[in-house]
Write a structure and sequence with these properties.
By secondary structure, this protein is an alpha+beta fold. The chain folds into two domains: 8-62; 63-193, no CATH class. The chain is 41% helix and 24% strand. The protein has three helices and ten strands, in the order H-E-E-E-E-E-H-E-E-H-E-E-E. It has helices at 9-62, 121-133, 152-168, and strands at residues 65-72, 75-82, 88-94, 108-111, 118-119, 140-142, 148-150, 171-175, 181-184, 190-193. Strands 4-3-8-9-10 form a five-stranded antiparallel β-sheet, with helices on one face. Strands 1-2-5 form a three-stranded antiparallel β-sheet. It starts with 8 loop residues before the first helix and ends in an 11-residue tail after the last strand.
């Protein structure tokens, strides 16, 4: 029988050591890869949390401005509250009921912080005028003393349009103190947006 050289004992140990070294090296690579994946995941979570904090901070002042309508007889009042510590700028109000030449009211250059709800009087008068224009077909008439008064039908139509305007709500668009544009729709949803380009007259 031919002699088979199985090698020496040191060679066996050397070979086994190389196999074990390769095994542990592969495990170390896998462990390092898993560690890197975990670290990357944690980093992404930290970045997402930081982004949420930045978004919350950006939205903080914008979310503290509220504008709404209330009824005042045949008119509407535009009420507002800015509970932040900074003013907002270029506030523009639109009503879903108004289109064409009447699709916006005056832009308010500056809305200061308020300790309690306030009224935008000029804007209220203009919005009321635009809404009442929708009922222009109904004429005024004179009473027994010659005073011009609105007909009962006109008052009913005005009451209806005012109620509808309040139910539909308003859209607002404005600039916060950090230079970010925001819009809040008639359903109260707040979105960051771009500058609103319209031809509107500023309120004095």
């Amino acid at each position: 029988m031919a002699n088979i050289n199985w090698g020496s004992v040191p060679d066996w140990f050397a070979g086994s050591g190389a196999v074990l070294a390769l095994f542990f090296a592969r495990r170390a690579v896998k462990a390092a890869h898993a560690t890197n994946e975990q670290q990357n995941k944690q980093l992404r979570q930290l970045e997402a949390a930081e982004q949420r904090r930045d978004d919350d901070e950006r939205r903080r002042q914008a979310s503290q401005l509220a504008v709404w309508l209330v009824r005042d007889g045949d008119s509407v009042l535009v009420r507002f509250a800015n509970t932040s510590s900074q003013p907002v700028y270029r506030l523009t109000i639109t009503s879903p009921l108004l289109t064409g030449d009447f699709n916006q009211v005056k832009t308010v250059p500056v809305v200061p912080p308020t300790s309690e709800p306030s009224t935008l009087h000029d804007t209220s008068r203009e919005l009321t005028s635009h809404l009442q224009y929708l009922t222009r077909e109904v004429k005024y008439f004179n009473d027994a003393d010659g005073n011009q008064i609105a007909s009962g039908e006109w008052r009913r139509q005005v009451a209806k349009i005012v109620s509808t305007a309040i139910e539909e709500g308003i859209n607002i668009h404005y600039l916060d103190s950090s230079g970010n544009w925001w819009r809040r729709n008639s359903h109260g949803q707040l979105h960051e947006g771009e500058k609103l380009v319209i031809a509107s007259q500023e309120e004095d």
